[in-house]
Amino acid sequence: MIEALETFIAVASAGNFSAVARQQDVAVSSVTRKIDALEAEIGSRLFHRSPRRLALTDAGQQFLPRARNILGELAEAREAIVAGDAEPRGLLTVTAPTAFGRRHVVDALASFLRRYPDIEVDLHLQDQVVDLSEQRMDVAVRIGLLPDSDLHATPLAQVRLVTCASPAYLARAGRPHAPEDLLRHDCITVATPPAPGFVWRYAGVNRNQPLPVRGRYRTDDKDGMLQAALQGLGIVHIATWMVCDQLRSGELVALFPDEATTSPAPGLPGIHAVRLRGRSHETRARLFIDHLRSEIGSTPWWDLQLQPA
């Protein structure tokens, strides 16, 4: 049964029997027999089969996440028995968005490795969403609204935005006293349409619709936005996790201080750590996610720094 479930998941991922047969170094007929036996066992067809394509049936789509959960629970139980009281060891693979990873994941990994000296880590920093199964990743840190999936997601923090500018810019252009004043200022914006959570929206302003701010500098790179603000090119609307150090040092000034310390507005995305059930490194993944959550804190440390003393 376990081999049949593993084969079913592999075929669903690959989209054909031949690729799975090559992966398992067996005949295609061996793969099809396992699928036939599984379909007979559960009493339903799992794939639409034709000479040109192979696709999951409705029953197959419903069964796929359950099959992964079954193997995931089994892997967790097996690893817990094997590990016993032994010290965790082995390789952990982690992926995270570039800017967030450099600022927050690297430090957490450093303390994690000091705590577990027999664990090794491969960290991949990239802004593209990684398929954990295809890329063989144990943990992914993701910022944004999570789509429905069979990934196990652990909330780490809620994104809070702050509107800020450098003292040099404010000395030259004047300080806006209300969000509506931003329409008369240079604002550092993204070069492509922003995600819904990152628009310049303020409660009770412009009928709660995004402000149509403009500016001469646009970029899709978060570090590029931060550096432009530090250079005095304009006002930036950015996540507190990105600029907490600059706000604390005075290199940037929060224009509407309550914005970063009150409850985040509805619709803002969250920061999550996700893992795929059934990976052989399940225990190490859970250990790191728990460690990362502890390092960030129930109220993220970067938001605590912005709260008035």
Automatic annotation (TrEMBL):
Pfam (any one): HTH_1
PROSITE patterns reported for this sequence: HTH_LYSR (PS50931)
Annotated keywords: DNA-binding, Transcription, Transcription regulation
Cited CDD domains: PBP2_CrgA_like
Single GO MF annotation: DNA binding
Source lineage: Bacteria, Pseudomonadati, Pseudomonadota, Betaproteobacteria, Burkholderiales
Entries under InterPro entries matching the protein: LysR-type_TF_proteobact-type, LysR_HTH_N, LysR_subst-bd, WH-like_DNA-bd_sf, WH_DNA-bd_sf
All residue ranges annotated as the HTH lysR-type domain in the record: 1-57
Natural source organism: Roseateles asaccharophilus
Entry superkingdom: Bacteria
UniProt record similarity statement: Belongs to the LysR transcriptional regulatory family.
Coiled-coil segments: none
Protein name per UniProt: DNA-binding transcriptional LysR family regulator
Entry keyword Transcription regulation: yes
